[in-house]
Amino acid sequence: MIKKAFVKVTLLGTAMCGLLTSAMMAQEPSFHSSIIGSNPHAIIAGVQSGGAPWTVKHGSAGLNVDGQLHVELKNLILPQLGNAGPVTSVSASLVCGGSGGTVVVTTDAVPLSSDGNADIETRISISSTCFAPIVLVRAAAFNGNPLPQPGPWIAATGLVSLTPDKDKKEQGN
Question: What is the pTM of this model?
Fold first, then answer.
């Protein structure tokens, strides 16, 4: 009888460990955030924002533990022009360590339409730990001319829109 109880407890413990391990593996850590436009004179990880305000109708960034990065931008525009202005391509930089952190990797440039639409889908090399990640969307070409270094950031994750009343009106609240 003691032997049967011991076997049951052992089997139950093994099953619980297996379930816990499976649950932990299924909950792969990942990063996902919305993206908003920049304002002038803001610095994140030593990178200056663009000289004019930018807005984004819809933007998101996602990064999984395998380094798969996806950035989607819809209507990333200069509001005073109503379009993307002279910016014709963008890249994404991953910052680790929050706004005072460090740019650890920057993607290759992708085209930005005149309407401000772009998709970045790439695999990046990341360290095992990236505390307080931020993805910066950076100007990579002006008027079709690639920049020799990544340019200013014009949109980013990890920021909070300070216009909740406007957002509520747009949602019909």
Answer: 0.77
